[in-house]
Amino acid sequence: MVATLRPQQEVLAEAWRQGLSGQEILQRCAGLVDDFIVKQFDESPAVQGAKGSIAVIALGGYGRQEFFPYSDIDLLLLHDWWSKKSMQAVTESLLYPLWDEGFEVGQSVRGVKDAVQFALEDFHFQVALLDARLLAGSQQLFDELRARYTKKVFDGRRHEFARTMEAFMLERWQKYGSHTYLLEPHIKEGKGGLRDIQAMLWVAKGVFGLQDLDAIEASGMLETTNRQAFENSWSMLAKIRNRLHLLCRRKNDHLIFELQQEVAESFDYKDREGLLGVEHFMRDVYTHLQTVSVVTDLFFEHVQEVLGLTAGLGVEQQLERSIVLRGGTIRLAAREDLEERPYLLLRLFLQAGRMGLSLHHRTRQIVTSHLHLVDDHFRSSKRAAGVFLELLTQTDDIFPVLETMLATGLLPRYIPEFAGVESLAQHDLYHLYTVDRHQLQTVAELNVLKKSKVELFAEIPEIEVLYLAALLHDIGKGKQADHSTLGAEMVMSIGQRLHLSESACESLAFLIRYHLFLPENAMRRDFSDREFIRQTAELIGDNQRLTMLYLLTIADSKATGPSAWSDWKSSLLSELYLSIKACLGADCHLGTSGGEDEEQGVSWLREQILAKLDGQPTRIDIATLPPDYLMSFSLDVVLQHLQIHREQASPPATADFALSATEKALLVAVDYGS
What we know:
By secondary structure, the chain is mainly alpha-helical.
């Protein structure tokens, strides 16, 4: 038996090369298993000798004829009272051949009442029965099960089913990924995966009696314009899951980093246009996951509205002309107003940001259908620019607002340069997200920093420059060029369209050109190298740019992933920042002779230290601190040294261990007044 069913399935799994869709392949694979099980049933002596009625029912993915190479086979062996005693022998006669073939089988042996009662207690079994399909045996027994199941599970309980489904979806996303752009997406269970498609179909079938996509589209709960892309994405995700099963020779639905190259090659992705074949492949994967996510999210918002689950969220509130708050969502009151005032497209998102609420699903569809209004005149509009910059800098929870702008197509339409990094994969273990989402996350990280580093943000008069740099810092990626240099060139025209001043455009370009400068040098350079600090201060030019570059570096690192940020890196960056800032404050970058300029710098540093001490006693006179020492460390580090020096003349081993060799040597030098 082993040489029959498995090889046939694996041959079928390759049939996509002949043009079969993912769904057609799965249906044919399920058909092979059907034939095998029916043959066993028909030839089983135990079945032939049983009294009463028996039905063999396919459940779950196998029931809906979506059978992957190493999926489980879920079966319900249904029986009446007369056949109950025969079921052990019947079960063994059907399951042993499947086990011999190497399949994992999930089986349940129950009567009709018992099966329905268990469905009421176990939501997973309840959902599995939605896809129940009779394979062999009694049609009458199967019909009895379906009638009782529908009456007990759904009659008067449809609201409960929808709520429970959404709760399970949220729980699943928390476990497997609540975003469609993770480095290692879960093709089945993650956001935008195959399970989201099934959740949509289950609710459509169970709650509304809609049996397929045709019926869902006819109901208005699936936009005709979205259907083709949705089906294409569904088909491709199915093919990818097939490939993962065959590559791993087991059930595996997680597209981990180590498998991405091999899967991309199996689908004939090639290196081109400055990107690796695997990066092209992953970009398509993220696009498909996003398509499924958008369509299923819209569907479930329809469900909530139709079932009245959003009722009772307050009366309608007029936020501004043509924009209202109703049912807990932001809505466009009259779509015809867009033609006369297209800037409303941006104001919708501004209001969403102000209120901390999402756009209504129909409003999001209206935005997408009116993107033609965002033309060159719109992009150069001072009024539109003002709305966009206010949205960017004044929204507390900015990520979902920007993500919806991206999903509707408004963000890349308004900033066409952004389209070049949309769903762009970064094939390394360093970045957790696609380039577009990484940039959105960087903006979100800035908002977090704004609350913890209030003093630093107060130093920046043109805060929009910093936020734009966060949104656009990697915009030059995906080309055969240094992305920092290319990005700096690209943002000049963006800044001009947004009506930034010439100096603001230059600062924006500077931040993007040098957004990697601080982290790279913090890891490699000796901060006691006065010439490096002087040259860096000269490059940056002023405290405002330095502070923006420092904040951008932190936000960028935190948005990249855990491996890009640590307490150690934070400490190094802080020390480098303070060293450069002290140099800028002392004008140490104006000369290298070590003469009058250096003396002025040292004097300024002594004054700053005394001001920071604010009368606190020290064991030594600040005037005796060596100039080389003062020019080598930031003010905060010098104060830390002085505190340790004051508290213990001979530091114990534990305190000594915390200092670098250079710091210990300098402390000794200070102690002896050298």
